[in-house]
Amino acid sequence: MLKQLIAIAVASSLMGCAATEPTAHAPKPLDTDTFNTRLNQQQVQLVAAINQQCQPTDLTSLTALSSQVEQLSQQINHLNQAAKNLSAQKQAAVVTPAPSQCPKSALGDKFLLGEIENVFIDELNASFATRIDTGAESSSIDARNITLFERDGAQWVRFDVYTQGEKQPATNFESKVVRFVRIKQDANEKDDRRPVIHAHLKIGQYSAETDLNLTDRSHLDYPLLLGRKFIKDIAVVDVGQRYVHGKAKQPKPKQPDPEQPKAESAIVSSGKK
């Protein structure tokens, strides 16, 4: 097909050339051999021109570019293989269990008390060396000159407490009686009927409240005793320790508010004796 096209193009060229010549000088008629020779020459020249147009202009650049593409392909394959190896290592790694939580304290929500603690009573505005006694059921405070009386139809009690020690004068207090309790010290003795008051306590940073029965504890070593009813559900006692919470500093006396009515459940100080 290509040869036919070339032949047609050459023939057209030859015929065109013949047509343009002056009629006065008409060319000699071409024989078959001459025509074929010229046709072959034109064909060779045309094929050479086509091959020259199709030949790459910069073979060196194409070779270098092909080499770079091959190197990049190798690097990509290397990275893919490394990623697969890393993923396999993670899957095969031994999972280290998380450390277990620290065991809960045996005390739970309770706080620790020593055999002897310093306890501050808000209503008396004083601190007392206190015996923490799991053998006693109720709690009591050393009170002297205990006198019962009525106020507004309710039972009240007046009593003295040595807030600064027995070498200093005692302070007189008044408080509403919440109930009475009978304590039997000895099988041969009668029951000791004691008035009970309500008080708010502070032991170190802990605050609590409890009922205290009033009794003369002058023959005992400590003016305040806290028993099982106070200890239960809030504290644990270590009899091998003392003053676990230190000795609280006694705050300054509160100035009474003349416009504030006295609460019936409060202990009222009536002066020094």
Overview of the molecule:
There is one protein chain. This protein is 29% helix and 32% strand. It has 273 residues and is α+β, with helices and mostly antiparallel strands. The longest helix has 34 residues, at 59-92. It is rod-shaped. The protein starts with a helix and ends with a strand. Residues 16-24 and 256-265 have low confidence and may be disordered.
Entry summary:
By secondary structure, this protein is of the alpha+beta class. The protein has a domain at 111-253 and 263-272: Cathepsin D, subunit A, domain 1 (Beta Barrel).
Fold topology:
Blueprint: H1 2-20, H2 32-54, H3 59-92, E1 111-121, E2 126-132, E3 139-142, E4 144-151, E5 154-161, E6 171-176, E7 179-183, E8 192-203, E9 206-215, E10 224-226, H4 228-231, E11 235-242, E12 268-272
Domain Retropepsin-like aspartic endopeptidase: 113-247
Organism: Shewanella decolorationis S12
Coiled coil: 62-89
Unreliable runs: 16-24, 256-265
Order of helices and strands: HHHEEEEEEEEEEHEE
Describe the strand arrangement of the main beta sheet, using strand numbers: 1-2-10-3-9-8
Quick one: how many beta strands?
12
**Radius of gyration, taken over Cα atoms and rounded to an integer in Å:** 59 Å
CATH architecture label name of the domain at 111-253 and 263-272: Beta Barrel
What amount of the residues lies in strands?
A: 25-35%
Structural class: alpha+beta
CATH homology superfamily name of the domain at 111-253 and 263-272:
Acid Proteases
Secondary structure tally, helices: 4
Stated plainly, the CATH topology of the domain at 111-253 and 263-272 is called: Cathepsin D, subunit A, domain 1
Indicate the CATH class of the domain at 111-253 and 263-272: Mainly Beta
Domain Retropepsin-like aspartic endopeptidase: 113-247
Coiled coil: 62-89
Protein name: Retropepsin-like aspartic endopeptidase domain-containing protein
InterPro entries: Asp_endopeptidase, Peptidase_aspartic_dom_sf
